[in-house]
Each structure stands twice: as C-alpha cells, then as structure tokens.
Amino acid sequence: MLTRLFARHRGAEAESAIRPNAATDWPFPFPPPGRARPTPPGAVPPGIAYRWPFRPVDTPPLPSRGVPAPVGLAEFKRQVAEWCDDVGVISLDDPAIAHERDEVLYVYPHARSLVCMIGEENKTAMQSRYLPSANSELYRCEERLWEMGRRTVKYINALGGEGLTTTIGWPQEVGQRWADKIWPLSHKLVAQAAGLGVIGLSRNFLHRKFGAYCLIDTVVTNLEWPAYDAPVEWNPCLQCNLCVASCPTEAIKPEGDFDFFACYNHTYRDSIPGFLDLVWDLAERPRKAFRKRWTDTQIAALWQALSFKVEYRCFNCVATCPAEIETAFHDDRQVRRRYVDETLKPLTYTRAVEDEQFVIDTPSARERYGIPPGEWRTPVDRRARSAEGVRLVSLRRIRTQSVDAMMRWMPQYFRSYEARGLAFTTHFLLSGPGGGAWTMRIADGRCEVRPGTIDTPDLTVRMPALLFLAIHRGEASPVWGLVTGRIRLAGRRRLFLHFPRLFPTEAPSSTLARWVFLARRSFARRRGSRDTASKAALR
C-alpha cells in the first residue's frame, strides 16, 4: 500500500482541487476518500458488534449507599483538576454506558457516579519512530493516572463518600472471563459522555485539547450530584484519513469499518496473540517447521514482554492524528504540508517498509505477497538493517466457552475483502446445551450478528450447539457433520460453501497445495506477459 501512496503523491496534489468530497483542501500523499459516507437505510452499519447484557452473580442486590455530594460539581472538578490534566463526571444512569451498568455495579454495588480522569502524553515521544520511547511514555502516563486515581479517591473519602478505580490497562479478568469481554467499563465511552472529546475514525479517543495524545481512567464513586457533564457538540476528528494512510495493516477503513484482528495480530504481537501462537506452534509443529515460523528476534521480543512489559509494535494512528492542532491544520496549508512531510511520511515508511509486518494467513494474503504454502514469510533481505518483510500469522480461533461469546466474535473474524458481491441472511438454529437462535446478515462487505430469528433467511443451518463450538475451535469438521447428518441445511445450500472463505482459519500448507499455488502463479505471470506483449503490438 505504501508504494502506491507515495507513487501517486504528485497526482494527488493535482487532483485535490477537483475532489468535492475532500474533508478540506490540502494535498494528500494519497487519494483522499473524503468524509465517511452515511449508511443507507437497511444497510449494515460500520463497526457492528452486538452487545449481549452482562450476567452478574445471581445474588440479591445490596441496599445502595449513595451519598449526596457536599460540594457542587464545579467545585469538585476544580479540586480534582489540581492533580489531573482534565476531568469530567457522569451519572451511572447515563445512556452512553447503559449496556455496562450491571458490570459497574458488579465492581462496586453502590456506584452512583463516574469520575473520568485524563492524563496527557508527551506528543514528541509518541511520534518517535523509536518504539521504546513511545511505549515508555505510555506506561509512564499509566503510572501517573494510577496516582491521580488514588488522590481522587482520597478526596472523595474526605467528602464522606467511597470510590475505587477500575483498571486502565493490565491486569484484566483474563483468568475469569477470557475470551469474553475482560474489562468492566469502557473508559472512552465515559470520557465521550462527559464531554471531554470524541472517539475518532481510528477508534482512538480524541481529547478537545490534547487530541489523541492522552490516556483515560475512571473512578467509580457513590457520590451523587443533581446535574452532570454533557457530551460536546463538535467533532475534533477531521476525517482527514491520515490514520487510514499510516496504518501498516490497513485495519482502519475510510468508510468507518475497523479490522480488529488485523490490528490485534500486528500491534499486540508481543502480547496475547503472539504468546498463544508460540505455545500452539511448540505443541503442534515439527522442529523444522517451528524454526521456519519463528526467528530468534521474535522469540526474544516475547521474552522481553514476559520479563518486563509488552512493547506495542505500532502507534501510527495516535502519532499521525492532528486533532490537537485542529484549527491550524484545517486553515493553514503550510501546517498541513509540514505535518505530512515531517510526521506522516517518516512514520508510515518506517512501520510499513522497515519493520516486520504480521499479516493474517489467508489465501488472498498468500496471493498478494507471493508466499507459497509451506512458507510463512517473504524472503529475508540479508542486507537489511532490520527484520523487514511480511510474516504470515494464523488467525487462530479464540476458544470461547459459550456460543454467546463466540457469536460476538464472529463480526471480528469476518474478512470483508472476501465478501465482495455477497449479500445473504443466515439463521443458525442450535440445539442442546447453550443453544438458541441467531441471525447473521452479510451485506456491503460487512457482517452483523443478532440473537433471535430476524428477517427472511436465505440459508438456515441446524446443528447441535456443542458441534458449532467445536467447529469454531478447530476441533471438529463441518464436512463430517454434513456427512453424518448432524448439520442440516435449508434454503440456498450453496451459500454454506462461502463460510470457510469468509471466516478463515489457517491456509493449507501441504505439498499438493504448494504445487497448486506455484502452478497458478506461473500461469498468471505467463498470461500477464502475453497481455503486455499484445498491448505493445497494438501500439
């Protein structure tokens, strides 16, 4: 993608004046798709992910210990702002967090208000191409927020109330709730409801003053106020799509979609996905295959993450966001040019060209990068200064314990680029323990899953819930389920053949698959050579 972006830089400058959909008039180093288009009625909205209600422990609720605050909200915020970079307060009953209300009460049964605290990050460190500087700044800001939370709780105690902080980062309830939602409260939603900023196209929180260079933590308290903060009415996200251009994995889409697993498998490579991949390969791969898949550099990176702290492999969506200089960036062409030349281009080139890229292993990815079955990375350039190139990683199924949790993950597993031209609705009718009915709608390159039977289905799939879980976890074969009659199809049965492509696991790596891949690539090259020769002859 980077090669195409920089190759068309001059063309984009010439065309910028005639693009009516551009967010503003500056010359992009890539064709700007403009502001995100509104979703047509009846279409699948971007970023769809249905939230099932949290199921708390089945115990009678405790009587609330809500306490009217002895000071006004303005005075409370003024005092807390002495040690916080910014602060906002919302009610537990705010509609923005209605889906998380039960989870907050699970953490603290007497919660009545949420105090949102902002910690500013050092912009220069976050924009550095040297990743340890950005990672260190991230962790230092987390430590500052922990201290802010302690001082805020002490102040609440002095006012006669109670409070506690939720976790800003690790640890989470991995041992209790993985692979379901492991955090009780979404700090970004609280900050947005408190009027501190807006969640942008990149899914980062954009503060009204600090832009993307901030972290958030929340104090849950039993203090109550008669009135609370309200969301801002303006959006600091310029829809400039610089985060789209700088993302090395193309996880951020200009239409508003976000490929969670593309970001997760690259940026968090030295966290959960890389560790699980290493353990599974140690258990399943022969020694020769393991040495092909894992270099000493990757193993050393995991050792560093386990011994010290996780090092995230990319901050481009944060570092290239100009939200904190919104007015100057929008009004001054020289500011825009300088920002693109000094910030966007160096970071984009470093992450997309000089750093190693971790890409989900699918047939389309192998075709794109020319990696045959049995190989897992592009050829190593021995002259390169760093471990550049593309490394294919398995999109391993997160082994959920319930169908509910698995269905929440399905839109994230969905590969939109494999769904061009497809539009159909499927009813899944699952019997036995943990079963139920779910509706999956695929249209416009998006996937939506809802509980219940909604709309008229094009395909109906009936099977035991435990078999559905086993197929998702890679422990059973859908082919064998069809042969034995445990999977029954109704409607347009051929649509069932699309699911392995739309929700892929690991691409085949047998010798036969390798020969087929090489033969197809050779045929495509010959056909391309003939087409080029024919065009030259016609000229």
Describe this entry's structure for a reader:
The protein is α+β, with helices and mostly antiparallel strands. The chain has three domains: 2-35 and 239-393, no CATH class; 67-224, NADH Oxidase, CATH 3.40.109; 422-502, 2-Layer Sandwich (Nonspecific Lipid-transfer Protein, Chain A), CATH 3.30.1050. 40% of the residues lie in helices and 14% in strands. The chain has 22 helices and 15 strands. A five-stranded mixed sheet has the order 13-12-11-14-15. It is globular, with a radius of gyration of 25 Å. Mean pLDDT is 80; it is low at 1-36.
Q: Quick summary of this structure?
A:
With 539 residues, the chain is an alpha+beta fold.
Provide tags for this entry.
single chain; 539 residues; alpha+beta; NADH Oxidase; Nonspecific Lipid-transfer Protein, Chain A; 3 domains; five-stranded mixed β-sheet; 22 helices; 15 strands; globular; disordered N terminus
In terms of topology, how is this protein built?
Blueprint: H1 2-7, H2 9-15, E1 67-68, H3 73-80, E2 86-91, H4 101-107, E3 113-120, H5 123-126, H6 131-158, E4 163-165, H7 174-177, H8 187-193, E5 197-199, E6 205-207, E7 214-221, E8 223-224, H9 242-246, H10 260-267, H11 272-284, H12 287-293, H13 296-307, H14 316-319, H15 326-331, H16 333-354, E9 356-360, H17 363-369, E10 389-393, H18 403-413, E11 424-431, E12 436-443, E13 446-451, E14 459-464, H19 465-472, H20 478-484, E15 488-491, H21 499-502, H22 511-538
Parallel strand pairs: 1-8, 9-10, 11-14
Antiparallel strand pairs: 2-3, 3-7, 4-7, 5-6, 11-12, 12-13, 14-15
